[in-house]
Write a structure and sequence with these properties.
It contains 10 helices and 12 strands. By secondary structure, the chain is of the alpha/beta class.
């Protein structure tokens, strides 16, 4: 049943005249009469008492009007919800800190330039395990993890991004000129690392363990969760760190840091974009995912 038929019935009783209803709904009076007649034939009862100076509902008409008002209210709510869905779709995205610091500013700049209607953007930095768990719990709709171990991601859509490279870096003030070094050339210095469980920490511990070494062999191991602080401290000549190349690309180009690799170490991390399988239904999220994938070619 078309909603305009119910609206015509409700307005006829409210205004008391077919001519007034026709004027309000911008249709002819005969069209109004036909709609009421259709409803009466459909339900098998007269719905409008036309005998008096104003239109009045019959007993059956009151029953139909009660339901009609409820259906019109539901349709109004439905239209409003769809309108909000179209214009206020949200994005809940989570990634590892290194990825967020290196790539989110440029990604957001480009995305907002072309998708300014997206009204709710939520971004979080977490460890890879937390990113995956957050997607499973529905806290996030999409995320990027950097990892060397395998994850069971069968319940998501995944996109492989280019690998991340992790390096030891030092200041030229320390005088280590070779790009390929031994671990013994580095252990005499302080090691700055992030907390246990972070991407770089996991890979470093894995590499050291495979060579029968550990972080305690460095002069001191300083744990700090502030990546900017670590990079600035090492740039000033205070020790070394094992860090994503994307975070220190500028310092390497400028010469304030030097890169080093250790023979036999794994220096590559996988990068994986993880998305909830229903993401195409959210146009803003779908466009965000497309922008992110295209950003890496």
């Amino acid at each position: 049943m078309k909603s305009e038929y119910y609206q015509t019935l409700v307005e006829s009783v409210a205004l008391g005249s077919f001519s007034k209803v026709a004027e309000k709904l911008f249709v002819t009076q005969s069209a109004i009469s036909r709609r009421i007649q259709f409803l009466e034939e459909h339900y098998g009862y007269p719905l409008i008492d036309r005998s008096g100076p104003v239109l009045m509902p019959t007993e059956a008409g009151r029953i139909v009007m009660d339901k009609a008002n409820k259906m019109l209210a539901l349709e109004k709510e439905l239209i409003q919800n769809l309108h909000e869905f179209e214009h206020k779709q949200s994005i809940h995205f989570c990634c590892t800190p290194a990825f967020g610091i290196a790539y989110l500013p440029e990604l957001m700049k480009h995305f907002m330039l072309h998708h300014s209607s997206t009204s709710e953007l939520n971004f979080s930095f977490e460890l890879p395990d937390t990113v995956v768990e957050g997607l499973r719990e529905g806290i996030y709709q999409a995320g990027v993890i950097e990892h060397f171990e395998s994850y069971d991601l069968h319940e998501f859509d995944t996109f492989k991004l280019p690998d991340d490279e992790l390096l030891f870096v030092t200041s030229p003030l320390l005088g280590i000129e070779d790009q390929e070094v031994t671990i013994d050339q580095l252990t005499s210095y302080d090691l700055y690392i992030r907390k246990e469980g972070c991407c770089s920490n996991k890979l470093l511990v894995h590499n050291l363990k495979n060579h029968g070494r550990c972080c305690t062999e460095f002069a001191r191991t300083i744990i700090c969760d502030d990546l900017h602080f670590i990079i600035n401290t090492v740039s000033e000549g205070n020790g070394t760190t094992f860090v994503s190349r994307s975070l220190v690309e500028l310092q390497l180009r400028q010469g304030s840091l030097r890169e080093h690799r250790v023979a036999g170490f794994s220096h590559n991390h996988h990068r994986t974009l993880i998305v909830s399988k229903n993401y195409p239904a959210n146009m803003s999220l779908r466009d965000f995912v497309s922008e992110l994938v295209e950003m890496f070619g």
